[in-house]
Design brief:
Elements: H1 6-18, H2 20-36, H3 40-43, H4 46-53, H5 60-65, E1 70-75, H6 90-100, E2 104-110, H7 116-119, H8 128-143, E3 150-154, H9 160-169, E4 176-178, H10 190-201, H11 207-217, H12 229-239, H13 255-270, H14 281-284, H15 287-300, H16 306-316, H17 323-332, H18 347-353, H19 355-365, E5 387-392, E6 395-400, E7 424-428, E8 431-435, E9 446-454, H20 457-465, E10 473-477, H21 482-485, H22 493-502, E11 507-511, E12 524-529, E13 546-550, E14 555-558, H23 583-588, H24 598-602
Parallel strand pairs: 1-2, 1-3, 3-4, 9-10, 10-11, 11-12
Antiparallel strand pairs: 5-6, 7-8, 8-12, 9-13, 13-14
Helix pairs in contact: 1-17, 6-13, 8-9, 9-16, 10-11, 10-22, 12-15, 15-16
Length: 605
């Protein structure tokens, strides 16, 4: 790409060089597997094949004779998660769409689908990050039947998209595409929701009022409308070219949504090895695609969880990407969107204003993204994703996005909200961590104050209730890393810390846990690595030690001499709610900067 920004080129070249051996090993495995599984029917003995299509009904004859491609569906459907509830009706429809073009489709497998919104602050949150490994493993189990020529991945939310992609990448000789179901309609204004949460934290309203408010916000089928991890997932799949262009934020149950689903299945039938436009996943997900995903995350102020997920997804494709890369990209990619919780409007407003298509167009114009990537959804690389879908009669078509529809939500590269992407690497004698500066007012980017050290969220809540945090304070919550307790999100702390900040105190959070894609206005150094368990620096902090966090100069440090201290003892691993069954994942997990995965670590990836 002739006009590629020098920083994007520099980071890309560094990632390519760093990944040379691991990427070569991955490509070699994919080439070997593609050759070994070239003839799908011949690879399966007759008895095995008969088992595979025994319940395929009217599609049995076509699958047996291999009259057309057979599309495998991996679904994360459940109806406890609003975003995934629409998927219950998808397989019958997708099979019809496949038959329209002489193909067939089968559900190859299902995966779990946890919602962090349901498990926030509860026991299940300690299994959330590792559910990504379980989802990846479930995906590989579903695809291990070797019955398929391409793959439709039905998943949207937090750990589900990364898990599906990690699993699918081990079958990278198959074309694969994500088929989203879209966001729910907008509910009550976000500021109203946030205000009620803070009132509840202060004890000024009760549970009934809080539940009524939350129910007006999360009220129907579809993805939650704030710009957290789920919607950041959708943005990244667009930037990686793994959707039909513009599919991310079209609402469920609409004619356009249905036609995008149809187009996805038709496309998956057209890009198999048997056709003349073969687009295997291993060719689509390369170093440039990973860089594009990170650039999109930064340009839109996306979820901090992807500082963990991008390295993990990259590893599955043999690509090594770390926080130094993310930090350098952030310093050069401007913030082009403010979507709640970073702004007032939600993803529906974002989409209506021009959405992802507008952002991609701006990035390409400035040379901030790689246009020359292989995508599943078009012929012109990432340029296809700078357009928006619409219904031309009863068929989906794509058109230019046009001018920005809301300058309070979207900006051009020439007039951004911030000159950088607002995802800073902070380092020092307390380790390496991420600080999402785009969500925090610049005057709050630096705090230096005595710390108060806690081992879990409940201790923080108790201290807040007792009035012990009514002062300038750095709240340190440790033993929250992958090996300690599965690295839960600490989103329940957001209202408490917000109240303290609104009372006029200088407040920050430092933790080796996660803080969520919905984290907001309080400065926070999260994902601190190395984690406290095993001797990370946070284990040596004591109450009253002065801690400095600065988003301007990238500092995370203490002025206290912690070198001669004994580390604090970690709480015993929790049991109950099935958490004890995840002991293996905790034991083998690697650092957050590598993705916090036990599965990838033990696989040698």
């Amino acid at each position: 790409m002739s006009n590629l920004h020098p920083a994007i080129q520099r980071v890309t070249d560094r990632v390519i060089e760093r990944s040379r051996d691991s990427r070569a090993a991955y490509l070699s495995l994919m080439a070997e597997e593609a050759d070994r599984h070239r003839d799908r029917n011949a690879a399966l003995p007759c008895s095995n094949l008969a088992h595979g299509f025994a319940a395929a009904g009217e599609d049995k004859a076509s699958i047996a004779a291999r009259k057309g491609p057979n599309i495998g569906i991996i679904s994360a459907y459940n109806d406890s998660i609003s975003a995934h509830q629409p998927y219950g009706a998808y397989p019958p429809r997708l099979k019809v769409y496949a038959r329209e073009v002489g193909a067939t489709a089968q559900v190859g497998g299902s995966t779990p689908a946890m919602c962090d919104g349901v498990t926030q602050g509860a026991d299940g949150m300690e299994m959330s990050l590792f559910s990504r490994d379980v989802i990846a493993l479930s995906t590989t189990v579903g695809l291990s039947h070797l019955m398929y020529d391409s793959v439709a991945l039905l998943g949207i939310c937090d750990k589900i998209v990364p898990g599906l992609l990690i699993g699918a990448l081990r079958f990278g000789w198959l074309p694969a595409m994500f088929v989203p179901s879209g966001p729910m309609p907008s509910g009550i204004p976000n500021k109203e929701k946030q205000a009620v949460r803070q009132l509840y934290a202060e004890g000024k309203v009760g549970r009934a009022e809080l539940l009524e408010s939350e129910s007006k916000s999360y009220h129907s089928a579809g993805t939650c409308t704030f710009y957290g991890t789920a919607n950041s997932n959708q943005m990244m799949m667009e930037l990686m070219g793994l959707h039909m262009p513009g599919a991310a934020f079209v609402q469920p149950g609409t004619p356009l949504r249905q036609e995008l689903d149809r187009a996805a299945i038709h496309r998956l039938a057209a890009i198999t090895r048997e056709g003349n436009d073969y687009r295997p996943l291993w060719k689509c997900v390369d170093e440039k695609a990973i860089i594009n995903a990170a650039v999109g995350l930064l340009a839109t102020g996306g979820s901090t969880n992807h500082a963990i997920h991008i390295p993990a997804m990259a590893r599955a494709a043999g690509v090594v990407f770390d926080w130094t890369d993310l930090d350098e990209l952030s310093a050069n990619v401007p913030l082009l969107a403010r979507v709640y919780p970073n702004g007032s409007g939600d993803v529906n407003h974002f989409h209506a204003a021009g959405g992802i298509g507008f952002v991609i167009g701006e990035l390409l114009k400035a040379g901030l993204a790689h246009a020359d990537v292989l995508t599943v959804g078009g012929q012109q690389g990432l340029n296809d994703y700078a357009r928006e879908p619409w219904l031309d009669g009863d068929k989906v078509a794509w058109r230019e996005v046009g001018a920005n529809g809301d300058p309070e939500m979207l900006r051009t590269v020439d007039n951004p909200f911030m000159a950088d992407g607002g995802m800073r690497l902070v380092t020092g004698n307390l380790g390496r961590a991420c600080f999402k500066t785009s969500a925090v007012a610049p005057e709050r980017w630096t705090i230096e104050a005595p710390c108060r050290v806690f081992a879990d969220q409940q201790e923080v809540k108790d201290a807040f209730t007792a009035g012990e945090l009514d002062r300038d304070v750095v709240v340190v919550v440790r033993f929250q890393g992958p090996r300690a307790n599965g690295m839960p999100e600490l989103h329940a702390l957001t209202p408490i810390l917000g109240v303290l900040q609104d009372r006029g105190y200088k407040v920050a959070l430092v933790t080796d846990g996660r803080m969520s894609g919905a984290s907001g206005k309080v400065p926070a150094a999260i994902h601190v690595s190395p984690e406290a368990l095993g001797g990370g620096p946070l284990a040596f902090l004591q109450d009253g030690d002065v801690v400095r966090l600065c988003g301007h100069d990238g500092t995370l440090s203490t002025s206290a001499d912690i070198t001669g201290r004994n580390p604090a003892m970690a709480p015993p691993a929790a049991r109950g709610t099935g958490r004890e069954l995840f002991a293996m994942f905790r034991h083998f997990a690697d650092d957050a900067e590598k993705g916090g995965s036990a599965m990838l670590a033990e696989a040698g990836l």
